[in-house]
Amino acid sequence: MFMKPSLAFRLSKAQVMAIANNLHHDECGIEAMFTAMKQADNPRVAYNAAWVLSHLSKVDKRIYLLPHYEELVDVATSAELCFRRGLILAILADLPTNEPNGKLLDFCLMHLTDPKESDGSRSVMIKLAARMCEPYPELCKELALCLDVMPQDSSPSIAAAKRNALKLIQE
To answer: Residue 36 contacts by C-beta under 8 Å, 6 or more apart in sequence?
Structure first.
């Protein structure tokens, strides 16, 4: 079980990993961490909680965070996000979805070329958009057009995400 006061201070990656490991199959602890992440009044606690949740095992994310998928989408697409958007997008990328979420897809398509977003966030947006568009040829065309207008001199993470997305949607 995690100790909430520890989230109020700067954490090292080792501490985050230890907390995430301690939360393995701890439904109450993960739920408390999710609640802490939504605390907009304390950005440090929210950031640390999101960081811990992003380091949970894929199994724990699927079991305990999938029921919160819509809430996670709302947080990821929020204009008032008080921590790195990439943390929430990374969680969403690990969650299986049968149907594309229109709000998330629209957000990804609108912001994956936005230089105001971090390279990490944009890379995950490309990955999520490709995964959501894959079953729909008309959406694949729209994504391909968005990716074509991106600068050729993108960062390595964006270039790799773009290559992988194009492979996925053109198969």
So the answer is: 4, 7, 45, 46, 48, 49
Closest CA to 119 of 74, 156, 87: 156
What's the rounded mean pLDDT across residues 123-143?
94
Q: Residue 39's CB: how many other CB atoms inside 10 A?
A: 14
Residues 135 and 83 in one domain: no
- Give CA–CA dist 49/170, Å, rounded: 37
Instruction: Sort 10 into a burial class: Cβ within 10 Å, 0-12 / 13-18 / 19+.
Output: exposed
Instruction: Give the residue-averaged pLDDT of 42-66.
Output: 94
Minimal CA–CA distance to 57: which of 31, 7, 23, 84? 23
Token pair recorded at residue 14? 């080792």
Domain edge (last residue) among 65, 80, 96: 96
In the structure encoding, which two tokens stand for residue 168, read together?
A: 């996925």
Domain that holds residue 17: 1-96
Q: Which two tokens stand for residue 76?
A: 């990821």
